[in-house]
Design a protein that fits this description.
mainly alpha; hpI Integrase, Chain A
């Protein structure tokens, strides 16, 4: 339609329907390889261990990469074991519970105030600061597609599988719409298989049932 808009052609001589793009499965970090992957993260981030801390914040709290870069110690409530992001994409400030393993990781690094992860000069990291370390860990563990964005998707999927209601997930992930939250969830075929087998058992179709 470019030529039509420019007046070169009076009308389009044909119309071509847009092709539908096949949706590709999105990667999530499976729990059975998480420990090995984080070991690879630590190895890749030896010169910048704060980046490994940022990756743990993404996985444990569902933070965006930009939210990790702006994360501050004064936003941690150690008594309640929660973290409240003070600078977010949606301008929301909801406390997120911190799991014990993350508290244990952060305690030795604890400070009264200031950025939780910084460059060597003390300034805030720029966008993409964790991607190279994650690519190296992916290669080491023969994984593909684990990025800061997909760690957030992993966070949402694992909460859903653990039975957390979507309205709670929506608040923790700081979304205004539950539909946006649902878009991060990936299908768990193991859960589907368990349900199918239960159906087969209750229906008497299983051998020996």
């Amino acid at each position: 339609m470019w030529a039509v808009k420019r007046g070169t052609l009076a009308a389009a001589p044909w119309r071509v329907p847009m092709l539908k793009v096949q949706k590709r499965p999105r990667a999530i970090l499976q729990l059975n390889v998480a420990r090995t992957w984080f070991d690879a993260i630590d190895e890749a981030a030896k010169r910048k261990p704060v980046v490994a801390t940022a990756v743990r914040l993404m996985f444990g709290l569902g933070l965006r990469e930009s939210e990790c870069a702006s994360a501050r110690w004064e936003w941690v409530d150690w008594q309640r074991a929660t973290y409240t992001p003070g600078i977010t994409k949606g301008r929301g400030a909801e406390p997120v519970p911190m799991p014990d393993w993350l508290v244990e990781h952060l305690q030795p690094l604890r400070q009264a105030q200031g950025l939780m992860v910084t460059r060597e000069d003390g300034k805030e990291f720029q966008s993409g600061f964790a991607r190279q370390v994650m690519r190296l860990a992916n290669t080491s563990c023969s994984l593909k597609g684990i990025t800061p964005y997909r760690l957030r998707g992993t966070f949402a999927t694992l909460l859903s599988e653990a039975g957390v209601p979507v309205q709670t997930m929506q608040r923790v992930m700081r979304y205004k719409s539950h539909a946006t939250t649902m878009g991060y969830l990936e299908k768990n075929l193991d859960l589907a298989l368990q349900a199918q087998e239960k159906i087969g058992e209750l229906s008497g179709l299983m051998s020996g049932a």
